[in-house]
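Tutorial, part two.
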Amino acid sequence: MTRRHDPDGLRLPIKIDATSNGEFQPIEISTANREGNKLALEQASQNARRTGFNRRSFLISSCGAATTLLAFNDVNAQAGKTGGSFELEPDAAFDPELAMHHLSGEEFIFDVQGHFVDPNGRWIQENPDAGRGFMFQEKAGCSLFDENVPNSHLQCLGPQEFVKDVFLDSDTDMMVLSFVPSTKATEPLTIEEADATRQIVDGLEGNQRLLLHGRVNPNQDGDLQAMDELKERWNVCGWKTYTQFGPGGKGFFLSDEDTGIPFIEKAIDLGLKIICVHKGLPFGPHSYEHSQCHDIGVVAKRYPDVNFLVYHSGFVASKAEGPYVGNGSGDGIDTLVKSLIDNDIAPNSNVYAELGSTWRFAMRDPDNAAHVLGKLVKYCGENNVLWGTDSIWYGSPQDQIQALRTFQISKEFQERFGYAPMTPRLRAKIFGLNAMPVYGIDMQEAKLRTSRDEVSHHRANYLNQPNPRYATYGPKNRREFLNLKRWES
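Running the prediction step on this input gives:
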């Protein structure tokens, strides 16, 4: 496993490592990534001395993040990456105001894919080895960690830390708490536990800050029947499904008449017409075709009044993205693009592309990042790309936010492939404006509530003396990944 730590255990504020969200096997970072991390730590040490800070203080400052992104730019340029870069002036590495000018923003950030696991739930009691999938390295920095107590490190992922990572250590204003693929008996987060976490946030007067999905896999007995309770009792905001997941490893398509269609029509009958479907990030070779997006355009055309939110956008981490040409590559985001074109689904229609794990992985490589963002905006529409981070798997989502705020598709790629530039207006749409009407949230009311609630006061006080971990929690190698997948057994 590649370590990004210097001898004193310091971490970079922009976390480029092999961590996955537990749905795909971790992929080692590239030589350029390793060199970028090394250069960033070296330059952070130099810049800390130059500005009179100790290294820890420098790294948690805006200049620390700017130094890291600028180091990535240098290494990517040397590697011949021409697709894009993080736009910062070099002096941002020393000038806090200039760094904040680039890295901060007034966008309303609505993260439509967050995750949380119950550290004391039935899933870990029945499969203790699954906890080894969370082998994050700062156990010693968590007061709840006890090396003599099995899986005590999971307590460091409890609801209070979730609130800290999401609402204090990042600029996130709202989040949808989603679910991982599982059966009812093996859920690492049940709807009851998710609601308890929502109530913690609500207890801080954070009403509407945390919304809940309802997990539904129509190829599992009882899931369709459970939709009524999910809506009426738990007030879910949409339905989350995994088409590659199912009994015996057999998935389904949303267009299947015996599974997908009854699911969509049940959602219509219940008056909650938001279908959030995991596409891409395949779990493995079994039922691989069901991880692809061939069915999206079909059902979007058949049900134009239903919103289909394609979580991960069809992205496959092991496949480098390129421009869409003709029928596409046959995998990855191209399967979404092809499905839209084949079914005459115009941009800004009823298909939305979500960026959870997709952006976090793509920001490793500016060429990949440019093709991901460029194609999604071009073919799904500037109003139909949604912000998601898949945190807590990746710790606080602030580094993903800062990376998107500064990333620009190069003029070369804009001209060659017809990609739109990343303007402040487009970023604001992606960060939150696009998701608000989909989830039926009034922007003015949301801004008013979040500007005055207890969470905002906590954040303001916390920022006087921040203490971010810069840790990632998901599996970082094959062994940890397989341990984490044991919850499905």
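Residues 110-120+159-451 form a domain with the TIM Barrel fold (CATH 3.20.20.140). In part three we will examine how such features are distributed along the chain.
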